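Researcher: Please generate the 3D structure of the following complex. Treat every line as part of one assembly.
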Amino acid sequence: MNLENSRIIDMYKTMLRIRKFEEKAMNLFAEGKIPGFVHLYIGEEAVATGVSANLDTNDYITSTHRGHGHIIAKGGDLKYMMAELFGKATGYCKGKGGSMHIADATRGILGANGIVGAGQNIAVGAGLSAKYKGTGQVCACFFGDGSTNQGTFHESLNLASIWKLPVVFICENNMYGISMSQSRHQAIQDVSDRAVAYNIPGVTVDGNDVFAVYEAANEAVKRARSMQGPTLIECKTYRHRGHFEGDPAIYKPEEEQKEWLAKDPIKRMESFIVENKILTEEEIDEINEEIKREIQDAVEFAESSPEPAIDSVVEDIYTDIVEEVNLV
Amino acid sequence: MRRMTYAEAIRDAMRIKMEEDPNVFILGEDVGRFGGCFGVTGTLYDEFGEDRVRDTPISEGAIIGCAVGAAATGLRPIAELMFIDFVTVGMDQLINQAAKMRYMFGGKITVPMVVRLPAGAGFQAAAQHSQSLEAWLTHVPGLKVVYPSTPQDAFGLMLSSVEDDNPVVFIEHKMLYGVSGDVDDEIKKIPLGTADIKREGEDVTVIATGKMVHEALAAAEELAKEGIEVEVVDPRTLYPLDKKTIFDSIRKTNKAVVVTEETKRGGYAGEISAMISEEIFDSLDAPVLRLGALNSPVPFSPKLEQHMLPNSADIIKGIKKLV
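Model: Done. Output below.
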């Protein structure tokens, strides 16, 4: 791997931006400022970052209920994201989607998704679209280990394989499908083993090592862009928090948590950067401050934004029909 | 004016849209080389090639889901499922994805796609290949639901459905595929949300959909001999629903019968009936009568199936209760 320092710094910033955004969301949720559900990506930052570093703005991604990291890595605007979490009119979805349904068509973000596994088929459709029109775009499809037991996983990998579609399937194996550990929810250890059933490459990488993710994704994206078909990449990682905020996660053994916290992807990246003299500790501190400010600006934007107008509740259902706005 | 079957009319409309717009393509099980389970796509594979008439594996979820992803990224897919019953397998993709995306994403992504669903009973296909599931689909905000009863309507409504920027569920009655009719090329598109009066009459309004339009017309023919004049209104699109045409007819006749092939319990006929009662109660001389299939799965035995479904004799009986 031969990455310029500036790109390494960008990747570090992306990871940090995700972490800080999520920590802020965690606190705001605890304070009661964010309604609904929040599923945090803390601990998995290297996956979205390593993959997205290989994507262009017009490439597509499909995401999951745990989608903030994917959206940030794909270039999503923190202000509009935070405003959406607050349910404000200025949010990405005008306050109608919330944490689980953020999309940004201008950056190829085809949406986070509240249904586990549903993005896989949509990714295949986006891949078909790119191939059909000959645009050279690829679609990176993010999903968790839990979703690989859904029928959509099989259907979409099969279809992408027979049609040789430019889709990269990225399994974020965070070791849990909600509360059920991987060893309890499937009889295999490596999700990538399943690639064999579709006659496509399947690789497993350390999902807390952003460079390992980057390299695997780089090869898969090249393969996709050159119309050789999809790849299944499994990134072994760990969800530091519960399934959703408020989940006490008593099902996660303490030893296991300790072990994985020691492998924190951001700490690893910082050590790498310092050891290789890419940045000094002072420069790292400066970057931390800069990103904190970005997040604070996003929170201020969200807090000062207006609530959605009542009339908007019946807008955007159809392109050409506005439903009645009052019940009686 | 051309004479063609309901199936040919659907195919012809798809062909026209595919010729006009390179982003329109078809996908589904056996739609290509085989020509479609009911022969609706026919020769389109030979005319447009395998990229635009795509045979898929037996994966209904992937068919609808792939159409959603393609539609969200600029194509206009027409997905065919072999039987409406199989929509259950792909329901998440239709209900939670296609129907919701535009709304959830604040109007920033559009999903222009058509899902063709052959529905209805009448040829001993039994409980898993004969249902009428329009109530489920009309229940969901974000979907449009179309249900033509004639070749002309199938032609004009398919043109509009493919052009529509929203997900459109296009229900086709399997027993109508072979029915022939005149198709006027001049009429072209039929806007979604416009009902059609299939027969004028003064005494009672029958609102019927799909194959039941033909049963209602047969009943009207019989009753005319007895001096009862039946007006038959075909909504043609279940959502958006042309309430005005339906209400205007009832304001004239003061009596309404709603006939659909659905299981009566929880059917869309109930929705139409409730709308009439809620909104134009004063125009009614009698309660709105709903006629539907029995509250039973569709049986296999021809004798049982025939008994389970509403027909013109039932409609005559129903109308006589009102007039």
